[in-house]
Amino acid sequence: MDVTRSEFDIIEQLFASLTLGDPRALGLKDDAAVLGLPEGREMVVTSDCLVAGVHFRPQDPPESIARKALRVNFSDLAGMGATPTGAFLAAAFPRDVCDDWLEAFALGLKEDIELFDAPLLGGDTVATPGPLTLTVTALGTVAKGRALRRSGAKAGDVIFVSGSLGDSAIGLKILSEEISLTNEKHKTYLSGRYLRPEPRTQFGAALSELDGVGGGMDVSDGLVQDLGHICAASGLGARVELDRLPLSAAAQSVLEVSPDLIDIVLTGGDDYELLFTVREDAARTATDLAKSLGLRLTPIGVIEAGQGVRVLRPDGGQWKAARTGYRHFDGAQESGD
Amino acid sequence: MDVTRSEFDIIEQLFASLTLGDPRALGLKDDAAVLGLPEGREMVVTSDCLVAGVHFRPQDPPESIARKALRVNFSDLAGMGATPTGAFLAAAFPRDVCDDWLEAFALGLKEDIELFDAPLLGGDTVATPGPLTLTVTALGTVAKGRALRRSGAKAGDVIFVSGSLGDSAIGLKILSEEISLTNEKHKTYLSGRYLRPEPRTQFGAALSELDGVGGGMDVSDGLVQDLGHICAASGLGARVELDRLPLSAAAQSVLEVSPDLIDIVLTGGDDYELLFTVREDAARTATDLAKSLGLRLTPIGVIEAGQGVRVLRPDGGQWKAARTGYRHFDGAQESGD
Prior knowledge:
Two copies of one chain form a homodimer.
Chain A: H1 7-15, E1 33-35, E2 41-51, H2 62-79, E3 83-94, H3 99-115, E4 120-128, E5 133-143, E6 158-162, H4 167-175, H5 184-195, H6 201-208, E7 213-219, H7 223-234, E8 237-241, H8 249-257, H9 262-267, E9 273-278, H10 283-292, E10 297-304, E11 308-312
Parallel strand pairs in A: 3-4, 8-11
Antiparallel strand pairs in A: 2-5, 3-5, 6-9, 6-10, 7-9, 8-10
Helix pairs in contact in A: 2-3, 2-6, 4-5
């Protein structure tokens, strides 16, 4: 069943209610949104593009695709310590997208827009001869001067990561049937982590108010590559202990059977956990903060002089991988170290 | 020649200088930009998506594609009366994009970023198996409460349009060799209007300060369709005189040979001129304002009770066309009236 709606119908019938009546959206009837900024706050803006077949599988449930497009952007905001306040969606839909699909997609958007209290403020709806391509621009705010930056790490800082790593990359392998798993609960958990990441917005916002927090970001391209960005921006190196990496029970059970998959825990990406460094004397406060939000928080290593990320195995040897993390252009694939 | 750069190289080598050193961009090293808002101003945000083969021709010069992606967004800002202050680019490049193309593309971006003084503040660079897809999110500011809206038209308002209409739609027909033209100057002018629209940012900003301006927007989908949006948002109708439509000398010469092309003047879109309504007693001020900026401004009709757009031919009959303007999803194509 092809789409029977024009883009104007799609906007009016499916997207207009996603503004939650927010006056900044002007009812999606104008070409732009008009917004202010509360006293003492700065605006944080991020824009991420997701392509079917690259960032999600075309056959993923439309609700999940919608929610993921929002969530990866909210995760960027969380990585900067900002609280989401709104989103723009520029959607290029394949011309043969059907009404049922669009309705389910809009429903997924709505769930998360309400959950994160970040109304749809505008965007664009176009047709494409190519794959579904979604660009969300998310707006957030943070107290003036308190945004977390990649460049703030100091030598001696403890490196923390929230939640658990590798679930999503393993979940994708399960969904694409590269790995088979008999434990249904683990299967559901891991694929759910791929389909519907959990941006750590509350924890990110709380971290921005904490003194002693250095380099911070969300892990989207894989731990080693993203920690490498913090190192490069801060002009320092990092040492990570392989056996400290936080794993879910489900990922642990997969790794017991396929220990080589530790590589995708380090480089697979799509984790959307918070990665940040903290001055040693503030580490306890960060831990308590995470605890108060019911969030797992794990110290995985330290920032040190030098450059690059060293991952140490329990035997003292250094982990080496074929790549450091996700790269879009293969011609430029580099080996990790 | 394939791309030899990773997305990180593309960002660092080609895009980082496009921030023009603006501190809000954080050197494109973080996942988001951090920005404030001057006292007494509101932020205006728009996000437009351009797809190769839909919004531009894949073979168009990369500089033009880059500039068009920025300019259609700056035109949306102009339509709201806002002055551009920055842009985000989420680019999905085909995996086989070559370095030369990317360099020319970045050069085009740079020219306009400098021209409009709207630094690149962030974005995303990904690979796509489909056509080049560019989403620009443009930020602008306007004095508090002065943004132009589609909903502000009043019965009796004069309808104005800036510049000339139809050039771009005719220019596309020339580029795709549907029309042949011997006059080289006209050919260059018309195709240039397609390749490099002129967003009326200065005039839009000036209009926002003028009392008596009602409904306003930029013409991107065709005059009849866009004026229809102003009518619908304002709960009124519009009467347009066909022989008042502003035409360039080049378009005029084409219409003399092919008078039927008047349809694409009314519905072709891609004009990026400003369309707005003004209280009759303020019409002279608007005209003087345009004159002071060296911009052609033409009264083309009036807002009246009722609904929809009526276009009257010189003989008093009503113009009818197969469609009112550009629509992305053909299943929903409606006839104009």
